[in-house]
């Protein structure tokens, strides 16, 4: 990926960061880079994620999915980091295989998917490191039953990705299912370039080697200076802007195919950096659509935002037909891609003209190689930002409380968290 | 809708608002309500939106869509307020008619939709108040051409919703197309309960009367006190929390069918209140999915957020099959709906336990009547908040700059904004 932080400079924007401050920050980047390199070399928890381009074996993943390689549809049962990386890749790239991600426990929605899918030609991809994630296991039990009711043998169509032990591992062994391992030392939100993210890509027939090569090329750029490494330029700039008041980071891809990448980024950023009362709040946006929704706020609301544009340099195009409506004749001289590009440049300039900081992240095009680079680059940016904040990037302790309360409420054990639910303070205003 | 602001009180959360402060704020609410009532009585620009339950004529809308009532699919061509209200209703409610919203100008994505849809059984719903919106007109020219290429007469399958005059109005007249009017005094983001939002609902066979009756029932609750009116309770509480530091409002429906409503809300809030360096930033979330993505940040990140839960009190359910995995046996005793409810209550309590403000907005179920109430209630909440902020709720001046720049870049006239694009400050870090 390429990064342009010109519109985040203090000469352009407020909040903004001066070149001098960036140069001072670069000393911290050099120190952080040493810690990151050491963590990678020691395969330390979390840092190991940045070794995935070397560690992941595409042949092993392809072998596991071989029994379902001809599936018409792939149903991935997973949530959070067990779903978002795979969905980002699957939704970005064209494939004849339909992909559905069962990442919620809404009964009506789950039923609608199961009623609609051609189960006899659908493969199941169940993903949970612990093998105990309540949402994933509940959905998997329902999916299995739906396959059985339809007379389809789910054991012939299921791939399991889980940890070394646990209920899902036991189940895979008992039914002799093809299975892959969630790599050690890699938190879910950093696992897109492991089996967790790549099983769906393999079933869809995407080029796993190109995904990993793109990521490896991005890894090559990790050096001790933000001025030489796009990932560090992005991570350091977002950190510096947050420190100066830009507590929100609105990520706005200018391509429908990259819409899910903004959701993936939002998890990466929120779960990694949102702790100790610190962390930038990711907001998911989409160009050009949100020019007619969020742009008013971004340009004229509080000065607490950075807008991150993510844009491919090239892509498919389509001419706009000519029109006899005089006022609109200019459209007929252009292509839809030119309109998209002009809207992007106009929006970027409109924020700069209002002195609102923004950063441009570019990839050459939306393909496996570039996507691998983007995913890896954003992960490295996040790891660097975590070093600069001084937080534990790779843990997510705040999600545990609600898990225990949920389990307690459903009778899965005694938890004091469940009792707190009953003590809710109410101030109700009813219709 | 029903609103519970108990978890936004200062006794529970920080930032939070004390009961005394709410009582003082209620005097401002009373004054604001008088201005709102006066604006409604005078049909003043913007305030007129709150009269839509009385003004909109369902028969007129049904008559306009009658020629395409049997369509298999409906392609709505519109962007921002010309799309989001219609999409919110269509995506919330079941229908045999497939609905697609062409609200972006990504060439690959537009082409994929046109290649996939059964054009001979697809109706077109083109919506633009001015009739000159570049994205909508460009897409409409492309859609027309695709229909012609497929040998389908688009003039027999197109419904136009636009202002009294302009290129789209002329086109509707020239081709004798069924057409409806974007009502005067109603900004796009407040137009869900007019023809703008209801044409798609009518083609899908939804109960327009129930939508409007639900909205009318919500209108009945507008009184001079936040303690008696759910909409004002919500608008006043979000305003008070923003003043006390909760600059972000994360809207988190606990129903897949309401996911689009969070996008609709985000436009309503951002474009109405984001001006004069004021306004709360909406963030779109989804329960339970985002418990595994955003919850860490909401519970342990900066104390600058309010979380708004939107939840139906009842809905379809589905049992979770029993399992022989001992550790997961508790799941098999529950339904998926009970798991969803437990996760919601646990998440709400987990935020309260960390003293993070949150508000619960409830509807009885996801149907036309309740949806009409929710849309109307949130609009009234937004109008009230605009009064409290003292901004011009019904304008969106900051989106004009980029429109002019886009037009200039495409050769549609001389605009100084287009020249500013070329002057971009760069600081590039390349791979």
UniProtKB/TrEMBL annotation, chains A, B:
Principal location class: cytoplasm
Pfam families for the chain: PGI
Keywords: Cytoplasm, Gluconeogenesis, Glycolysis, Isomerase
EC number of the protein: 5.3.1.9
Entry's Gene Ontology BP terms: gluconeogenesis; glucose 6-phosphate metabolic process; glycolytic process
UniProt KW Phosphoprotein keyword: no
InterPro entries: G6P_Isomerase, Phosphoglucose_isomerase_CS, SIS_dom_sf, SIS_PGI_1, SIS_PGI_2
Pathway(s) this gene product operates in, as recorded in its UniProt entry: Carbohydrate degradation; glycolysis; D-glyceraldehyde 3-phosphate and glycerone phosphate from D-glucose: step 2/4; Carbohydrate biosynthesis; gluconeogenesis
Superkingdom classification of source: Archaea
Entry function: Catalyzes the reversible isomerization of glucose-6-phosphate to fructose-6-phosphate.
Stated name of the protein: Probable glucose-6-phosphate isomerase
